[in-house]
């Protein structure tokens, strides 16, 4: 703000112009244009007494109105300055938030790029491993990239078949109830323990001796895995690993534009 200084007063007061202004009408109508028309005369003219006291009274009243109007303008400018300062503080906070978000997005973008490079290295290793077993790695990875870059859908896992229903007896009861039925008197028991107690108490002579358990079968000999089967399993594992790597690479590549846009 430049330094303030008072100007030298020059020129005589235009009393005739001042006399044309009706102070009461200015107050009633809030005639700011009339105040603006006499602002320079009241501020920068040299006031010389002319012997008419009414002119000085009128000049004093108009000066009061001018001062009140100037104070109103000053208050309005202060409010605008305060509002502008608050808006500036809000925008600074917003800029800081955007900068933090941008830094986080750039960091995530770098991490995704490093992971893409790592998976590319893994894919190169898988390609070399597949070439050792005579598999065309280039066509395989081209098919994997095409399938992953398509609609991105996978075949749903096969639905397991429903468990077989429990066998039902002729009376409509399941076999669990038949297993706990007394063969001598036909009573049905909830558990085999109750059935055994019933047989020991009511039919001790009819209880047949338990048959000895059958001898255990000898363990089947383990045949050595032929080299061809081992090579096939290694190649199959490499193909599965290559498929997983290709899918993960496609996910990372698709995530890079979103991270950059965020």
UniProtKB/TrEMBL annotation:
SMART domains: ZnF_C2H2. It holds the Pfam family Dzip-like_N. Residues 180-208 form the C2H2-type domain. Belongs to the DZIP C2H2-type zinc-finger protein family. PROSITE patterns: ZINC_FINGER_C2H2_1, ZINC_FINGER_C2H2_2. It is found in: Cytoplasm, Cytoskeleton, Cilium basal body; Cytoplasm, Cytoskeleton, Microtubule organizing center, Centrosome, Centriole. GO terms for molecular function: zinc ion binding. GO terms for cellular component: centriole; cytoplasm. Residues 148-172, 199-236 are annotated as: Disordered. Residues 199-209 have a biased composition (Basic and acidic residues). Keywords: Cell projection, Coiled coil, Cytoplasm, Cytoskeleton, Metal-binding, Repeat, Zinc, Zinc-finger. Its main location: cytoplasm. InterPro entries: DZIP1_N, DZIP_RILPL, Znf_C2H2_type. Residues 155-166, 210-227 have a biased composition (Pro residues). This is C2H2 zinc finger protein. It comes from Tribonema minus.
């Amino acid at each position: 703000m430049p330094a303030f200084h008072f100007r030298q007063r020059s020129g005589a007061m235009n009393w005739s112009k001042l006399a044309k202004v009706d102070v009461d009408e200015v107050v009633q109508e809030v005639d700011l244009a009339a105040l603006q028309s006499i602002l320079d005369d009241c501020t920068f003219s040299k006031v010389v007494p002319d012997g008419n006291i009414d002119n000085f009274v009128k000049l004093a009243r108009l000066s009061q109105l001018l001062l009140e109007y100037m104070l109103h303008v000053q208050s309005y400018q202060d409010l605008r300055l305060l509002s502008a300062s608050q808006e500036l503080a809000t925008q600074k906070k917003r800029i800081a938030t955007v900068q933090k978000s941008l830094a986080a997005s750039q960091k995530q973008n770098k991490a995704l790029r490093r992971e893409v490079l790592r998976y590319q290295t893994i894919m190169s290793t898988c390609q070399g491993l597949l070439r050792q077993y005579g598999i065309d790695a280039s066509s395989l990875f081209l098919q994997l990239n095409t399938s992953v870059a398509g609609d991105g859908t996978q075949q749903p896992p096969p639905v397991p078949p429903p468990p077989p229903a429990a066998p039902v007896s002729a009376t409509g009861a399941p076999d669990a109830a038949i297993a706990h039925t007394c063969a001598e008197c036909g009573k049905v028991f909830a558990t085999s323990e109750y059935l055994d107690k019933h047989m020991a108490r009511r039919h001790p002579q009819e209880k047949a001796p338990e048959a000895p358990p059958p001898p255990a079968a000898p363990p089947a000999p383990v045949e050595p895995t032929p080299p061809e089967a081992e090579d096939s399993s290694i190649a199959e594992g490499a193909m599965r690993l290559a498929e997983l790597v290709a899918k993960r690479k496609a996910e990372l590549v698709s995530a890079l534009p979103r991270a950059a846009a965020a």
